[in-house]
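Support request from a user on the community tier.

User writes: "When I paste my structure tokens into the form, the page sometimes reloads and wipes my input. The last time it worked, I copied everything first. Here is what I submitted, just in case something in the input itself triggers the reload:"
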């Protein structure tokens, strides 16, 4: 038997109410995809693509215009309470009451979900996000990174099977980003299905097993990460030659050839049509001797550029 998805999104549309005249922003134009159980799923897209809108609909913070969504099998309209209990959401914006301690923040959240005091996991969660020693500090005295970690603990208070993080690492330094990745990976290893939105391609490539890309409110790709990266058909080879180039070397099979320095040429080619060796041979056939070569492997960025260029 196949497992039901952790999240099912079906033809989701969101049009924000107009602020002045006009029609209002159509932020989601009928998006459908499933998030499988058990993995780390990336929702990727440039700023303004509609990522937060989608997450906030799941969180019950934004009302959808049409379409439907299920969280852990519970419809967000018909079975609102169970849907909400099945998901923990770390919003993009950090909002906190600065006068509570981390321990109190988690206890209050436990109370909000009606979890009896004896069954709350505040201490355990503080340890999990490496904040046990800040148990009784004022939240306002925490660093930005500590606040993010506390928000993750807060999202997990009711032990949901799904954790959603909206741009957890936007504007975060390298060290903290590494910490957050570790934390997310740890939670996933313990069985939590993780969804994260990001506009960092490298992050999605390293962390996520499966990626959905949205652009201008539309789903433009949804595949396992490895397959998505494999879609990059264009490759680039940079060649340094022995004398100044008279101009870009023109060959019908080069998608692009650009002189970047007097003696350096960057050639973009279709990897299905030719090889780097063939590119070099063609350059040499124009009377140049090749002195240095670097190639760049395709990565998610290439795919992203290909897909979002349209
Ligand atoms: P992302 O999270 O991918 O950056 P958002 O979901 O925040 O994108 O925004 C998608 C689009 O909807 C953007 O054009 C944004 O300006 C617009 N938008 C977001 N929130 C509102 C709102 N409350 N009212 C009107 N338009 C909004
Ligand atoms: Mg956003």
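"...and here is what came back when it finally went through:"
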């Amino acid at each position: 038997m196949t497992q039901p998805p952790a999240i099912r999104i079906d033809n989701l549309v969101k049009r924000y109410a107009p602020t002045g005249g006009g029609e209002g922003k159509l932020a989601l134009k009928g998006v459908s995809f499933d998030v499988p159980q058990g993995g780390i799923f990336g929702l990727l897209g440039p700023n303004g693509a509609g990522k937060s809108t989608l997450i906030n609909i799941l969180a019950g913070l934004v009302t959808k215009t049409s379409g439907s969504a299920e969280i852990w099998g519970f419809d967000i309209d018909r079975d609102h309470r169970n849907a909400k209990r099945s998901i923990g959401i770390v919003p993009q914006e950090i909002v906190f009451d600065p006068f509570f301690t981390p321990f109190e923040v988690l206890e209050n959240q436990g109370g909000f979900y009606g979890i009896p005091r004896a069954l709350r996991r505040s201490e355990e969660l503080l340890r999990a996000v490496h904040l046990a020693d800040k148990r009784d500090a004022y939240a306002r005295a925490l660093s930005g990174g500590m606040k993010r970690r506390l928000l993750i603990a807060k999202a997990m208070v009711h032990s949901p099977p799904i954790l959603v993080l909206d741009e957890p690492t936007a504007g975060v330094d390298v060290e903290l980003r590494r910490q957050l990745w570790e934390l997310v990976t740890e939670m996933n290893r313990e069985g939590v299905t993780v969804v994260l939105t990001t506009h960092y391609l490298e992050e999605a490539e390293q962390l996520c097993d499966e990626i959905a890309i949205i652009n201008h409110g539309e789903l433009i790709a949804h595949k396992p990460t490895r397959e998505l990266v494999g879609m990059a058909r264009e490759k680039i080879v940079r060649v340094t030659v022995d004398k100044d180039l008279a101009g870009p070397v023109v060959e019908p099979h080069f998608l692009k050839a650009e002189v970047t320095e007097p003696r350096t040429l960057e050639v973009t080619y279709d990897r299905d049509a030719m090889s780097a060796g063939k590119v070099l041979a063609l350059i040499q056939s124009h009377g140049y001797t090749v002195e240095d070569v670097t190639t760049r492997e395709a990565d998610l960025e290439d795919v992203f550029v290909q897909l979002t260029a349209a």
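Agent notes: The reload is a front-end session timeout and is unrelated to the input. The two ends are 39 Å apart (CA to CA). Residues 16, 25, 27, 45, 47-53 surround adenosine-5'-diphosphate (ligand 1) (CB under 6 Å). Escalated to web team.
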